[in-house]
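Problem 12. The chain below contains 316 residues. Write out its predicted structure in token notation.
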Amino acid sequence: MPEIDLSNIEEARRLIQPWVHRTPTFTSRYLSQQTGAEVILKAELFQKTGSFKPRGAMNKLKHFSDDEKARGIVSVSAGNHAQAVAYASATEGIPCVVVMPSTAPRIKIEATRGYGATVILHEDLRTIFDRTEEVRKERNATLLHPFDDPDVIAGQGTVGLEIHEDVPKADLVLVGIGGGALISGIAIALKKLNPKVRIIGVEPEGAATMTAALESGKSVKLEKIQTVAEGLAAPFAGALPLQVTQKYVDDVILVSDAEIIAAVQVMLQRAKLLVEPAGAAGVAAMLSGRIPVSGKKVVPVLSGGNLALDRLREWL
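Solution.
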């Protein structure tokens, strides 16, 4: 696999720094009392576009040649990466097309258009990458892959650098898994800086792509994806994230949609943070007892906050 090292992640931070926020961490007395752990929340919901995704998209864009930029960008996403690619492309005036599932939250579709991208809706999540390749060929454009790319992974790894600076003695870091770029980047950064830290991936039961890949030893396209956490609903885990996960991630666990929704409710009521389902996966893992955290210093990564209000009303 392409070797991604700490130096690549540090370079990514230098390249993207003018265009992204250094997001804060917050302690949570309530979560600490409920779990017996010292809980420190990494608040990526306060990142540009409302999720961690601009880190990887911007880093990849900075590695494209002038010719690749001139041909325009094509990508695929259920929402957060779509907004990030649109935002990153707009910073350099690059035409951008994003293929999105027709089931994506309207708030994410409209936000992507708001950043200047052309959105193409596609019905079948299982074939959405095939449709994206068709669009790329039709337009002779450059693909910006949402997760299976070393520059994207290095960009997402800058979250790990910030966690280490703010919580250098963390015992556990909990990260939701979709395609796998975020956990890959964070795991590389943190394991290089503190080999004792444990990195735990969290997947919805209805979108267990990394679990399937780990069991089979290769990337597996799921026949059915069904979860409220559309940000974790990639149809498969990337081949490169799989290899990184095998090397650096200590465990991957599953949570139910009910547990994710409960975590969203708790974050709003007790932490006053509006976290989308994908961003609440780590909190769900703690509160449900799926991962023992008592006595540990634990950092759940709140990866995004792009939650449509109509969905929130259903859960309150």
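Discussion. The chain has a mean pLDDT of 95. Students who got a different answer should revisit the alignment rule from Section 12.3.
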